[in-house]
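I keep forgetting this: the sequence line spells out the residues, with the fold written below as integer tokens. I include a record here:
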Amino acid sequence: MQDIMTRFERRAPAGSDLPVLISPSISGQSLLSGLAQFRDPIETALHMVGGVLLRGFEVPSVDAFQQFAAGFGHPLLKYEFASTPRSAVSSSGIYTSTEYPAHQHIPLHNEQAYTREWPMKIWFHCVTASPEGGETPIADSRAIYRRMPVTIRERFAPGILYVRNYGEFDVPWQTVFNTADRGEVEAFCQRAGIRWEWKDDDELRTTQLCQAVEKHPVTGDMVWFNQAHLFHVSNLQAEVRESLEDLVGVENLPRNTYYADGSPIPDAVFDEVRAVLDAETVSFRWQEGDVLMLDNMLAAHARAPFKGPRKVVVAMAEPHGNLGRF
């Protein structure tokens, strides 16, 4: 693989090789034509390093990106049991990246690690690079696991309890479950091991125990794999948190996380977790046409605030999970 790997400008912790950069062997080569040539090196790099940046290829359309992602042999997935707002770009599994306001930072996370089933592969395609900010930082989930204090790893090992209250302060349940039919919601929850409770005013509360750490099914490596820090109340701005707690009470917050036994997780624990995530962050500037492919268990991703236009689209594939564990 050495002949197709080159260095590029990035900010990364010492010793990190994330992501591997692969560029075309000839100028003007299309991403699709490079699939047959580079597929094996990409798959190898994914397991070794966790992520690959394909830069310098011609990607004439979102459809071409979709065909490239689908070319790895797995049907592209729909975005189900959502935690953030996204829009479908096409009917064939291409979505916008999370539609949070441009000034907001989206912390590192592995896609759908707040569930018991998740995609193993995720692709990002930069259609329009923001003139300022807008990076998609990434991090090695194996390195995060190793750096995480042992006391936190052990306390989290039994799992993380996610509690969500859908309503006016978060994504509506009709959007999360892609249906307005209560029966369909309940059937989904039953399959996924989610406890549900219908509340007044057609509102819904769900509770699910999910993994905090996982073993990669191919490499056998242990990875830090949860979104506890995103769902925990400490992720809110202080004034927003105070207002919500006063308005609805702690038990009715839009989302929160607890230890597996239901006991509260102190804010200080997540101060340590976030410090580890920060220390393992890798960041680079997008270039238009870039495609970033990640093993979703081996590499986490984030989004930096930005100004000006930015368009990054996403595809996911190869479902994997542990529905029967908990």
Summary: The mean pLDDT is 92. The first helix runs from residue 34 to 48. The chain is about 25% helix and 25% strand.
